[in-house]
Amino acid sequence: MITCIGAAPGVAIGRAFVLPTWEWDVPDQKMDVVDLTREFERLTEGIHTSRCEIEDMKKEVKEMVGPEESSIFDAHLAILEDPVFMSEIKGIIERQYKAAEVAVKEAIDHFVTMFDLLDDEYMKERATDIKDVGNRLLKHLLGAPEIKLPSDTQPYILVAKELSPSQLVHLNPQHVLGIVTLIGGKTSHSAIMSRAMGIPLVAGLEGKREEAFQTGELLVIDGDEGVLFIDPDEETQRVYADKQRKLQRKKEQLQLLAEVDAVTRDGEHLTLAANISSLRELETSLKHGAQGVGLFRTEFLYMDRSEFPSEDEQFDVYRRIAQRASGQPVVIRTLDIGGDKQLDYFALPEEDNPFLGYRAIRISLDRPDLFLTQLRAILRASAFGDVRVLYPMISSVDEVLQAKELLKRAMGQLGDRGEAYNADIPVGIMIEVPAAAAIADLLAEEVDFFSIGTNDLVQYVLAVDRMNEQIAHMYHPYHPAVLRMLRMTVNAARDRGIEVSVCGELAGDERAIPIWLELGVSKLSMSPQSLLRVKHRVLNTSAAEARDTGRQCFRLGRSGEIERLLSAYVTPVR
Ligand SMILES: C=C(OP(=O)(O)O)C(=O)O
């Protein structure tokens, strides 16, 4: 047995297919005849073809896996445009008279060595991205063929030194039982995609096996435990086949809960809704028994295009979602760009602190033309279902009043056009900025509901960037400061009699159920993949007991203690 990193859960048993390394042999030679113009032209053409391929893969992943995973390819496109990477390549051509492919190879080696030397998992993963993009560029410059995966064989476990997201896109989950990579870890882009595609993955095998992996050898991998067996004996095969069957059965049992209400053992009802970014995700959510859409992240409608979506385009999507939700609530959040979410055609200013900068409602209020277009589209959809509007990143009463004023103006415009809409559309705000939690009592006077966005709330309360892997260990959703903010918000909503729900990642963490019960939050909105797991936990929970645990959490002073107490209370189900 080899212990490694379990990067995507699940068990796989099958024969190995070893993927040849995607690295080209490039002889280090100077140009025969110095023709800089020709080399630059070849380089430009290679970049263009690579960009087109990456854009196609991005579209494919968006369709197949989801918009968030597809944004992985933005990092790849950014590398092709990176001025430092490109000037390194051009400098080698210009000053050393080397052919474009030699220059690209040297630039890849230079940056990969530099990033690998840093003792930082995140930077090492970025080295993988550079290799992936650089090798794609090299492939075009050398006219080399694409490495193809077998598609007509028995299903196999794919073994690769490392696997790039662009290689993963072309995997057929019907053929690939599992993945083994020598390098990489839990945070790699491949791991994120494997998890979303439901393919078990173990990583970090480099140096743990002396001889090379061979195509055809029998492997067992367990992506939960992070273990790999090579040519396992019969007993091991039996044990893991058994585990695999149990996991499959668990999945099937959970699926049976889709139509069951989320009620605790002692009769308390919770509403479990879904966070979605597309119609495709709504379908998955409905299959998993979602009670409506608690958060529709509309920014994904604005991505992968060259201009802002028109009112009609937006209306078409919102209407279809409202209709498909068949009368269940659909909460549509207005545009939340800025921070880590950028639009190619909307040049946001370079900022020192983009998460504290020009983003979300701040942009909407600054650009009423864009905001009114979106509000009209949402309002028109409200004639087709229980549509509600949600404003992101609210930090003051003034912002709410301005947004409400613009909503009224949008209603007036639709009225002039004779369009139907719900004049009483419920209006809510995200509580994700500490200021909003602190003045929740004032904000509650102005709106119909609160939706607590714990992802951003945790980042802002703790001053811990949610995207920065180096400080990821400090990102504590169970920090007492976060719990206090939650309490303030929920109390304010209760005193004013408005609805409060939670839509951050914490809503999908079954360990948090005692916190919600203690606070009196009865509506949770989460990723479609979490719905059945959380429901299963709710069904096995005694609200009275859980509330007791929740109460104890509020008395503890350290995140670790709180997390331990909650973890001991539940045994997570997958
Ligand atoms: C749901 C949230 O918003 P985002 O889309 O930024 O994750 C949140 O911040 O909790």
From TrEMBL:
The protein's required cofactors: Mg(2+)
GO molecular function: kinase activity; metal ion binding; phosphoenolpyruvate-protein phosphotransferase activity
A Gene Ontology term for the protein's cellular component: cytoplasm
Residues in Phosphotransferase system enzyme I N-terminal domain copies: 5-126
Catalytic residues (positions): 189 (tele-phosphohistidine intermediate), 503 (proton donor)
This protein's record includes keyword Cytoplasm: yes
Occurrences of domain PEP-utilising enzyme C-terminal (ranges): 252-540
PROSITE patterns: PEP_ENZYMES_2, PEP_ENZYMES_PHOS_SITE
Compartments where found: Cytoplasm
Broad class of where this protein is predominantly found: cytoplasm
Its biological purpose: General (non sugar-specific) component of the phosphoenolpyruvate-dependent sugar phosphotransferase system (sugar PTS). This major carbohydrate active-transport system catalyzes the phosphorylation of incoming sugar substrates concomitantly with their translocation across the cell membrane. Enzyme I transfers the phosphoryl group from phosphoenolpyruvate (PEP) to the phosphoryl carrier protein (HPr).
Name the record gives this protein: Phosphoenolpyruvate-protein phosphotransferase
Species annotation: Saccharibacillus brassicae
